[in-house]
Amino acid sequence: DCHGASGPMNAVLDIAAENAQLRMKRAECALKTGDLQVAMLDTRHILTRNKNNLEAIALRGQTYYMLGDIEVAMNQFKGGLRSDPGHKKLKKMYREVKKVFKRMQAGDRHMEANEHKEAAAEYLEALNLDPQHPANRPKLMEKRCQALVKAEEGPDAVASCMEALAEDHENVELRCLLGDARLANEEYEEAVREYERAAQQEPQSRRVHEGLENAKRRLQMSKRKDYYKILGVKRNADEREIKRAFRKLALKLHPDKVPPDEQEEAEAKFREIGEAYEVLSNEEARGKYDRGEDVEVQGRPQGHGFPGGFPFGGGGFQGFQQGGHTFTFQFR
Question: Are 24 and 59 in contact (CB under 8 A)?
């Protein structure tokens, strides 16, 4: 029983401070009970007197790992293995820690490359390798939450951020990320409430203030046409994705594919996607729309006109230009 033995061991070490075996035993107990400072001090004391004590090196590496200093922990294990390449305990620890480290690094690389879904998957793998790690668990849960928010994976982002916040409810950044996740999930009123809670925790935070303003603006915007939803794209869609979505929807409304009794409805839908494309394909107009400002629309994409309008009936609609190409749809 490490808890019961700590008192007697402390008393003996007060008298026999150089007893390496007993100091090692106290360091092992300290690691088990989470008293990492004592484990660090005792292993340092041992290694100061015998730098080749492999058991102390292994224990010090474990302590660094529990503190979340993974690279330092790996260096400790590698240093010991240079002295004894066949040391089973050191080899096992090094392999296990390296697996976690590789997953975390892979997640960070994906984040830098804006590959957010892939990053979230790597962080989850790292988390699953050591799910109860006291330092890595909250760090990885927050990183996964952030990655899913950036990927605009609404439901998964909300679930991930809620789970992370449940274990670290004072974390204001997590509260803000949950607000962002709710925005991605189109839970606008809930997003405002999350940011209001964050504002109560940190009323002077610029991040919180800007997030709250954005959530309120998005709530207002939710009451008008959602051009992103009309085109079926995410809010972070680039120009290419927007153009592709518009083209796909326009082709779907081809007169050959629209029964006569549905032509009026198809024309209305086409005007709607044209309006959405007009705004989202124009950088200035899109910026205004995203900021919640009023945007003038003419019912057709600027610079990508629908020559002759969109006259269904006798000849279908006469055509439209997109990306330098003119498409003409006619009934056959």
Answer: yes
Q: Could you give phi then psi for residue 258, rounded to 5 degrees? A: -110, 115
The per-residue pLDDT for 298 is 64
pTM over 0.90: no
Beta pairing partners, 86: none
CA–CA distance, 176 with 198 (Å, rounded to integer): 7
Residues in the chain: 332
Neighbour count for residue 204 (Cβ, 10 Å) = 7
Q: Which helix (H) or strand (E) holds 326?
A: strand 325-327
| 62-80 tens-digit pLDDT | 999 999 999 999 999 999 9
Tokens of 143: 């990183």
Query: Residue 86 carries which side chain, given as an amino acid letter?
Result: G
- Taking the C-alpha atoms of residue 170 and residue 200, their distance in angstroms, rounded to an integer, is 11
Amino acid identity at 246: F
Q: How far apart are CA 209 and CA 217, in angstroms?
A: 12
Identify whether the C-beta of residue 160 lies closer than 8 Å to the C-beta of residue 144: yes
Q: How far is CA 6 from the centre of its chain?
A: 42
